[in-house]
Amino acid sequence: MRLVIIGASGHGRVVADIARLNGYDDIVFLDDNENVVECSGYPVVGKSTDAPDGEVFIAIGNSRIRKMLSERYADRVQPVLCHPKAIIAADVTIGKGPVVMAGAVINPGAAIGAGVIVNTSSSIDHDCVIGDYAHISVGAHLSGSVIVGNETWIGAGAVVSNNVTICGGCIIGAGGAVIRNIDAPGTYVGVPVRKLSESRAQTE
Ligand SMILES: CC(C)(COP(=O)(O)OP(=O)(O)OC[C@H]1O[C@@H](n2cnc3c(N)ncnc32)[C@H](O)[C@@H]1OP(=O)(O)O)[C@@H](O)C(=O)NCCC(=O)NCCS
What we know:
With about 200 residues, the chain is mainly beta. The chain has helices at about 10-20, 65-70, and strands spanning about 1-5, 25-30, 40, 40-45, 55-60, 80, 85-90, 95, 100, 105, 110, 115-120, 125, 130, 135, 140, 145-150, 155, 160, 165, 170, 175-180, 185-190, 195.
């Protein structure tokens, strides 16, 4: 089974490993850095715009680029990649092209949008709604009924209280605690979080 992974990075290597565990035995990468010729032993066969035939997976951390490439390949199958040691409740709904990594837990009633990254050992509790191209980083925990807007990045180890809504276009810094709704895009850090800047940092 062929999978074309876009993004020959550390994230791409994790995605490739999960793809292997999901039964893909013909994995190739695309990357715009022409000096990169292989990734985890798999060949880099061209640039991000030159996908050969096969299912496509966008393994790019930057949410805007992930969205742009996902839309470019809208006519391709973009599978859900789920590590066998992740736990996903039976009624969870999932859009196209997300990855759920090892140790992640997604509890009943949750909805996961397109291109979402549910990173290692993060948890998304009951009835959460995760917008398209959001990223729930390593070890982040969302309590019940949390809403995360499109392209919002929840940093490593961050915690979000139940029933909180975070709008799209936000970054929650590593270790942050979100205890109230966030209504304006920007970068938020601390315990509890306070606004650091009006714009997203460019650190993804
Ligand atoms: C929030 C973040 C995006 C800010 O990055 P940045 O804009 O480059 O910010 P800087 O490093 O210039 O720091 C600016 C200020 O914010 C503080 N700050 C930055 N990140 C912080 C955090 N997570 N918690 C608390 N304070 C933080 C810095 O100490 C600094 O304070 P100072 O001006 O008093 O010295 C980044 O620090 C972060 O937390 N990224 C998340 C990384 C992550 O979770 N990766 C997971 C991948 S799976």
